[in-house]
Amino acid sequence: MVAYKIAEHEPNYAVDKLWKLLVDSLRDGIQTFIPHKTLKTKASCLKKSVKNLVKKIRRRDEAYTRSRNSGRLEDETKFQTLKMEVQKELRRAYWNYV
Questions:
Q1: Domain boundary assignment for the chain
Q2: pLDDT tens per residue, range 60-86
């Protein structure tokens, strides 16, 4: 398709215009025919250990809201233990990554 356009306009166009036509056609072809990376859902691209950490973070957040709403000592201690565990595992995961 590009070759036909270039052959069609070759006698009339200068080199710069032909180059621009080629570059634009290539860019259009890349956008049309080459598949591009799509975003994955957050949970599907995480490793198993990180998935467990995310679950623990959710449990910690739920424990926080439960302890704030109920005001019971058991809920507060459960939240504090989950908070410490999550912090420890986050630090460990960070240092394993680094």
A1: 2-33, 48-97
A2: 999 999 999 998 999 999 999 999 999
DSSP 45: T
Residue count of the chain: 98
- DSSP letter at 34? S
Sequence letter at residue 25: S
Whole-number Å distance between alpha carbons of 69 and 63: 10
CB 53, CB 86: distance < 8 Å: yes
**Alpha carbons 5 and 1: distance in angstroms, whole number:** 7
Cα dihedral 16, 18, 23, 27 sign: positive
Q: Within 1-98, where are the H helices?
A: 2-9, 15-33, 48-70, 73-97
Query: What pTM was computed for the model?
Result: 0.50
2-55 pLDDT, tens per residue?
A: 677 667 766 777 888 878 888 888 898 888 888 877 665 555 555 777 888 889
